[in-house]
Design a protein that fits this description.
Helix content: 25-40%
Strand content: 15-25%
Radius of gyration: 17 Å
Order of helices and strands: HHEHHEE
Distance between the termini: 46 Å
Strand order of the largest sheet: 1-2-3
């Protein structure tokens, strides 16, 4: 029986830093191998916390040519710790890779 995810469980994981919120690269590879032809000449947009640790970005980046992608776009916040009461603006980062 699957454990129901609740806010209390997420807060506990955040405090203990033992979260498993990122999809494993092997899971992405095993699922997306069935859809390789669907990506030809397509733009893939990865909205992720940090593309340096995103396994979806890693998959599409390392398979860019093999999949025949037109463009790979990722967006994230450079400063991940936002202070809601500060007058500082958070910098948005936009990066794109294309053929």
């Amino acid at each position: 029986m699957a454990r129901k995810a609740t806010n209390k469980l997420l807060q506990k994981a955040k405090k203990s830093k033992s979260d498993e919120f990122y999809t494993q690269l092997s899971d992405i590879e095993s699922e997306l191998k069935h859809y390789k032809n669907q990506f030809k000449d397509k733009v893939v947009y990865c909205n992720c916390d940090d593309p340096r640790v995103s396994n979806f970005f890693k998959y599409f980046f390392s398979n860019f040519e093999q999949l025949g992608l037109k463009k790979l776009i990722t967006a994230c916040y450079r400063n991940q710790e936002m202070d809601l009461f500060s007058s500082k603006k958070t910098e948005n980062v936009f990066s794109a890779l294309q053929n």
